[in-house]
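Q: what sequence does this backbone want?
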């Protein structure tokens, strides 16, 4: 199974990238299941019902979150009615919503998704290391493939979680910093790992905020109103391929696309039914020649953005 995880969607620029690029990404990269961190999707802070429904309608299967999940008050009600929106599993008992979800891909395969939050330089909530084991045990009864979004500040805490869950889940991918890291790997026991998937939103910014306001805070220590930036929107994401029998990862690739690159990607595979059909036939040809499902894009003529891969 091929999983696409989209880094923190920030405001309207992030949502526009998703709208423009997700169909092409799914087609070109042969994606089976889509997860996205959506906690900053409403104006850069929080999520609303309307925006959550838009994201799901665009083709995201499960939305994860983190410390900004409650920034919009309506999320308290929305999360209770939408099981595909997760809050960190290690929030205390009694908090609305759930931190894990058993989903199904479009072809009926089970996928477990866990949203988790770190505690170093973050809220002092329940221990993520003990909570995640309970969530894994609950999901493992019905799903071999399990993906963990670990929303945390400290790279040390994220790395610790990756090693702690090595061999127990398909992937541990970090979020929160909005800066994509370059340490994708498959750990020794078969878990794909990336410290941070990055941000889907405006990259000529300070982690999604207009530069002037954020820089002013550093220079003067005075309060400033943060507005979501708009310049240079880029999609940051990671693709994980996992074995359906074992649930362990066989491949991880982090990707970055500009808005123009996403536009070109969509045109290359979705312009016409004939082009899409040709792409499907070419994938079948490559798969037959290789004796296994094809994972290369060259045969499709698809622009690949900036991609980096590690495999088992």
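A:
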């Amino acid at each position: 199974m091929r999983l696409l995880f989209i880094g923190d969607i920030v405001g309207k620029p992030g949502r526009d990238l998703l709208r423009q690029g997700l169909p092409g990404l799914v087609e070109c990269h042969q994606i089976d299941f889509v997860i996205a961190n959506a906690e900053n999707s409403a104006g850069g802070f929080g999520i609303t019902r309307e925006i959550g429904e838009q994201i799901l309608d665009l083709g995201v299967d499960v939305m994860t979150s983190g410390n900004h999940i409650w920034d919009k008050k309506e999320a308290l009600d929305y999360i209770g009615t939408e099981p595909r929106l997760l809050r960190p599993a290690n929030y205390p008992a009694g908090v609305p919503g759930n931190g894990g979800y058993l989903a199904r891909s479009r072809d009926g395969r089970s996928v477990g998704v866990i949203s988790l939050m770190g505690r170093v330089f973050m809220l002092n909530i329940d221990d993520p290391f003990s909570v995640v084991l309970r969530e894994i045990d609950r999901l493992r009864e019905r799903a071999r493939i399990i993906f963990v979004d670990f929303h945390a500040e400290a790279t040390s805490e994220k790395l610790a979680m990756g090693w702690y869950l090595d061999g127990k889940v398909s992937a541990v991918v970090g979020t929160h910093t909005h800066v994509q890291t370059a340490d994708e790997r498959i750990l020794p026991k078969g878990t794909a790992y990336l410290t941070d998937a990055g941000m889907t939103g405006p990259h000529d910014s300070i982690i999604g905020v207009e530069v002037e306001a954020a820089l002013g805070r550093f220079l003067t220590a005075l309060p400033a109103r943060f507005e979501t930036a708009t310049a240079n929107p880029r999609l940051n994401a990671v693709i994980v391929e996992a074995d359906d029998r074992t649930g362990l990862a066989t491949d991880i690739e982090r990707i970055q696309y500009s808005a123009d690159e996403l536009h070109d990607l969509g045109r290359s595979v979705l312009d016409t039914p004939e082009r899409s059909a040709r792409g499907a036939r070419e994938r079948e040809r490559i798969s037959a020649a290789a004796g296994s499902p094809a994972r290369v894009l060259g045969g499709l003529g698809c622009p690949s953005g900036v991609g980096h891969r590690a495999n088992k």
